[in-house]
Amino acid sequence: MTTDNLLWQTKLAARLHDPAEKALVLLRDPAGHENGTSRALTRLLGLHEIASDTLDADNDEALVRTVFRQGISRAMYRQVQRADWWAAAADRPQWPMQEHTVETAKGERTFKVAPWAQVRWTNQPVLVHPLTGDTFDLARHGGLGDTDFRDIKERSFNHHADLLLALERQAPGQPLDGKKALLTLWRFAPELSETADDGKLGELWKLLPADTRIPDHSIWDHLDLTSAFAGAFAADPQGEVALLTLAIGPVQPFIASARKMEDLWAGSHLLARLSWEAMRVVAERLGPDAILFPRLRGVPQVDLWLREQCGLPEDLFKDCAWLRGSTDSNPLFAAALPNRFVAAVPASQARELAEAVQAQVRAWLQALGSQVVERLLKEAGVANDPALPCHAQMREQLAGFPDVHWAAVPFSLIGIANADKQTGLDATQLSAAMRPFFSTADGQDAGFLSTPAWQLLQKELAWAEGGKKSTFFTPNPGVLYPAVHDLAERALAATKALRPFAQSRQEGWRCSLTGETEWLTTDRTELCLPPGQRGPTLWTRIAHGKPAWATKGEHLGALGAVKRLWPTLFAEEVGRALGRKDAVSRFVVSTHTMALAHQLDRWLQREGGCTPELERRLERYRAQLSPVALPRRLLRHANRAAAEDRVRTAPLLPALLDLAQEDGISEHEASALRRAVRESLASAQGGPNDARLETYYGLLLMDGDRMGAWLAGGDDYAISYRDSFHPQVQKGFDEHAQGHPDITRYGRQKRALSPGRHLAISAALNDFSLTVVRHVVEHEHLGRLIYAGGDDVFAMLPVADLLPAMQRLRHAYSGHDPAHTGGRDPRGLTLHQGFALLNGRLMRMMGTKATASCGAVIAHHQAPLAAVRRELAAAEQRAKNEGGRDAFSITVIKRSGGALRLTAKWGEPLALLTALRRFLAHESVSRRAAYHTLQWLDAQTLPAPEGDGAMLQSLLAYQLDRQAKGPAKGQAAALAQRLTALTLARPASERIAWLRNFISVAEFLAREVRSGAGEDA
């Protein structure tokens, strides 16, 4: 057997060592969970020695059995066993074991799990959120008491067998490819098909716990980790494994260099693609489950690799969302991968793998750069001569990019006294290696080695109870995963501090986008000429024929050119993957269109018409107008509610307004064009014909708080060992720990970092960014998602949708909306106790303890994007710094000059801002209500409110009430009370100024709504 075959067979055996349905058959199946589906599947694959007289005559089993003939060796069995022990120890708390007598002739004594810790999970089906400890009791949603373990076993077996049979049908009569089998089971075994499930388990199949006592990580997490360890053992001559941590960059400078929205998406997406090219090296050699963070299962770019490069059967992917998207709403366009990964690799191959990653990402980028130059020359009508300077410029400017930093820590730093049992740990070498990175003195432990949990676990912890001895499981090297990971992270940080710098000579004028390198040229003499003295250049030709790649006056260097062409090149790549002759459609909603989105929506929904003047203008300029892209939700509304002629006309209205800004249009004609559009849109709103057109739009940038700390764990970001237990086990633990201080202390300790934690975080961020964010921004609101990767969200919205979208995204990030307790959200996305339910799909989010901060900017559509983007980044930083995280900060950039800025915590401040905006925008409230209130609310003359603020509340109520009539009049008192309460929470010296600012922001938001956008009912 070749080394490669041995690797994949070992990983297969590891992946099948436990049945997927373990939690549903444990303590119910007389054969035991290990003698059910797992044994049947390993027999099918020839990974288990079986006697000829025990062979099943079932045709499917006989068919699959033909693909493998060789049984598992003892060496392979030991590798899988060791991997299982390590994986269990890395992901689960240690357990008290109780002594008992085995019924043999000698009456041998051994240890087993105490009765109080044996959980029949189908009777008490509880899931524990690994990041918060929140429990989700399935018994409240129907329970699992009526599940038949025999039926579940059969369904599980059929599901796995069907996956393997798909491979056999792909190559009839050929031995099964071990790598394809492993990849198929890794990707699709967690997704129970409708045929195999028949509505029995649904989304729960993906979340079935690996251990019913600690139901905070799934069986798939355990199988992934076991396979990762087993593969590393098998591929290393000494059977040693190391943790490899690797990061590419720089991140922010690469993304931030932008002059238009497409640049921001391209930078983020291209960096995610580079990250995948880095991870692909490890995935191809060791399998994608070798990467412990991020989780790669279900990532569209990884799916594409599985189908295109690995050759998995196409019909397995038939239900994947990325196969159905014909526009850039396709999940392939999401920047779903971070710029770093952690992998379990053979210790002897760590350096070679890291160097291969560096070579791969740089070679891939160089190939992309060469393709970019060829496309630029073709578009410019210049012959592609390899001697042209632009080819050499591209190679030189991309040389050494991106930076690749890595560190590897072998588990062999842990001494093992008993190799057979993997016990008797000695952390002396590991402790010595950690000291320089933690600045601890000789002889002192650092990191996890200094925690009370390790101090308890490194020695046998035993006690007597009821005449029986109880003890903890003896720890194996998997327990020290957090220490090895911590050392790898510290070492990686140290490598980043040592950044080699290779000087590169750059002459003449610089790239318009980055400002760092000379622009690409076909004649180097052009580089020294200022803009007014240049003749036709490569870039002036591009600007004339392909303005999406470069606008008038822009001249780009290598990275700038790659970013500009990446949307086009990637769209073509996706088109080829989907079997299309042309590229997948991409659309960019302009800031002007976004500002008008609500007015256009009202016009479509309320059956607004075109004035005769507008019809004449449309007819006159129709040949010059190209329909603009509209937000997706607006298009869905249009198709559902509007007449066909209005649907065709809507994309022409913003185009007509854009035409009015062109140099060839006189001011008189431009004014007539704007008036014609304005009067037509006003016809659907029941307002005056002189109602203004919306000119402001919103941008939001949201980022998860302290993501590094969440990944690293620690006391503030981890649950206790006890809180991770099943409720039944918690009760028994509390009862039996009484009188045993060490046991009690252990239960209170915060759980150490684990691979399962990393997988849980990665899975939550993947589902959030790939699925939930786009639903919130583009399905629930009239927005346009620019990018979403992990915990980062960047989106553009109309002003009226900005506040509700911000709050909705914040709730979605943690997976909990207080309004959803006891029911489902009619918009389709329900958020409760750290989980999200969308279109029948159950997803675990970051949990109720996770927070996020958001910056938002409201700006005129003609404001320079670079300046708006800087304000947006500053707003996000204010939310994190001034707001103390878990906060939002809004900046209003006024066209007339000046800005308003408001920073506050989520919750009541945002809810009140929304309520006040709605009040001020109400048709029965005077447009000068805020102005009159601010007139007397003068910080120079009005003393800061003291005590309970009764006087301030009374005056606020009076001013707001006198400016309202009808149904709005009764809202003034409640608003005044809430405004006063928030004001009193501020330092006395800031109260009046803060209140004035709060009202001013609400008034601006209301004014923009009232000038045309309106509000949803």
Task: Sum this structure up briefly.
The chain is of the alpha+beta class. 46% of the residues lie in helices and 12% in strands.
Structural class: alpha+beta
Mean pLDDT: 85
| Number of continuous helical runs | 36
Largest sheet: 6 strands, mixed
Distance between the termini: 69 Å
Low-confidence sequence ranges? 49-70, 1009-1017
CATH superfamily placement of the domain at 241-401 and 508-577: CRISPR-Cas system, Cmr2 subunit, D1 domain, cysteine cluster
Please tell me how large the radius of gyration is: 32 Å
What percent of residues are in strands?
Answer: 5-15%
Overall spatial form? globular
CATH class of the domain at 241-401 and 508-577: Alpha Beta
In the CATH classification, which architecture of the domain at 241-401 and 508-577 applies? 2-Layer Sandwich
How many runs of DSSP E, i.e. beta strands? 21
What's the arrangement of strands in the largest beta sheet? 14-15-13-19-20-21
Helix content: 40-55%
CATH topology of the domain at 241-401 and 508-577, which one? Alpha-Beta Plaits
Pfam family, one: Cmr2_N
Domain CRISPR-associated protein Cmr2 N-terminal: 243-367
GO molecular function, one term: nucleotide binding
Domain Cas10/Cmr2 second palm: 696-888
